[in-house]
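A reminder from the course coordinator: this example appears on the midterm review sheet, so study it carefully.

Given structure:
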């Protein structure tokens, strides 16, 4: 299970602004689903109940970057740098371990940024 994307929350054919749709989705069912979905994804990534940079890299190599990785089983340096940057964003206290709380805060902040960006462009 993946965390829902913007496309999963928005009907782009609707006359209602996407930012309004996303906020309604969050208030109606999004928060409950968000809590469950982030916990499920976190469990898939975590080893021993915690997420390290290696855990995140392993999970991303088999999901988001599987096609890029291909048969070589290695990733380009740019992708490795992206994984490191993502981990740094997730690891809010800098202790080298991402907790479920940090994971949820990161994804909630991403959601809020998308809503704000849509508002900024009048969507």
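Designed residues:
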């Amino acid at each position: 299970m993946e965390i829902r994307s913007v496309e999963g929350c928005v009907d782009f054919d609707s006359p209602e602004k996407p930012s309004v749709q996303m906020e309604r989705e969050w208030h109606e069912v999004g928060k409950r689903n968000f809590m469950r979905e982030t916990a499920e994804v976190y469990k898939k990534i975590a080893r021993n109940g915690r997420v390290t940079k290696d855990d995140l890299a392993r999970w991303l190599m088999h999901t988001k970057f599987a096609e890029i990785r291909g048969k070589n089983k290695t990733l380009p340096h740019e992708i490795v740098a992206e994984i490191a940057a993502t981990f740094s964003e997730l690891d809010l206290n800098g202790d080298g371990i991402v907790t479920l709380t940090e994971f949820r805060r990161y994804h909630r902040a991403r959601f809020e940024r998308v809503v704000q960006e849509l508002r900024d462009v009048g969507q």
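The first helix runs from residue 6 to 9. The helical segments are 6-9, 18-45, 53-62, 66-69, 77-90, 100-120.
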